[in-house]
């Protein structure tokens, strides 16, 4: 089973807009290929979603804090049990209302290297149910330790990969003294998030600081925190949009980031959506958190 997640927003002009939906279609096609599910017509499926939203448009909230969540889903419908490539499959869509993801302004994370979310050669870069099901035990332990989510680590050097279901960003002064926005690279264990890609596109366009896709380790983060080189750390995703990280519990200690969270300066940024039909020549106004300089 593979799936996607995207939202439809109601703008100030009362028009409904999907945010970069073809990126979701492309990612779902990639996930389906790895699951040996059949290929599907991406533009046609997107048009079906558009028509569904059009029919159910009254469900889209008149609010900046809520939206209509769309869950495209692709499952095998074989008539027998067995571990094999499916010959039959069902592609369908579920929709529901969505509000604020966390009940606080910043997330607390629990990092324990005994659990890993994904591994090289696996399906960490796909939206598959198994990736999320296996995370629940670690999440339960995180909650027992007073945290909201898991900071997933990988390898002997404790590479930072994802935070819960979010991509991770670190805004800091790096080892070379440069102001840098860094996020782990797409090496097969990181989900290629749509919000992640949008942040990279926007910040690179700003040209105000170095923007990198690079490996980050807990050792580097702890050292930077001790030397007061961390400016902000946050997670990104369709559900949470952008969520600052308040503290990280790691190796028996709590690394507090709340004293460095500067508060996000919200800027209205117009992102052109270059898709066909309903989406062509439309601009989606998104409130994205612009990092403040210290």
Topology overview:
Blueprint: E1 2-3, E2 6-10, E3 16-18, H1 21-34, H2 42-55, E4 67-76, E5 89-98, E6 107-111, H3 129-133, H4 136-144, E7 149-154, E8 159-163, E9 166-173, E10 179-183, H5 194-206, E11 210-213, H6 218-226, E12 230-237, E13 241-250, E14 253-256, E15 265-273, E16 282-290
Parallel strand pairs: 6-7, 6-13, 10-11
Antiparallel strand pairs: 1-4, 2-3, 2-4, 4-5, 7-8, 8-9, 9-10, 9-12, 12-13, 13-14, 15-16
Structure characteristics:
294 residues, alpha+beta, D-amino Acid Aminotransferase, Chain A, domain 1, D-amino Acid Aminotransferase, Chain A, domain 2, 2 domains, six-stranded mixed β-barrel
Protein described:
- By secondary structure, the chain is an alpha+beta fold.
- It has two domains: 2-99, 2-Layer Sandwich (D-amino Acid Aminotransferase, Chain A, domain 1), CATH 3.30.470; 107-263, D-amino Acid Aminotransferase, Chain A, domain 2, CATH 3.20.10.
- The protein is built from six helices and 16 strands.
- The strands form three sheets. The protein has a six-stranded mixed barrel with strand order 6-7-8-9-12-13.
- The chain starts with a strand and ends with a strand.
- The relative contact order is 0.15.
- Its EC number is 2.6.1.42.
- Its cofactor is pyridoxal 5'-phosphate.
- It comes from Sphaeramia orbicularis.
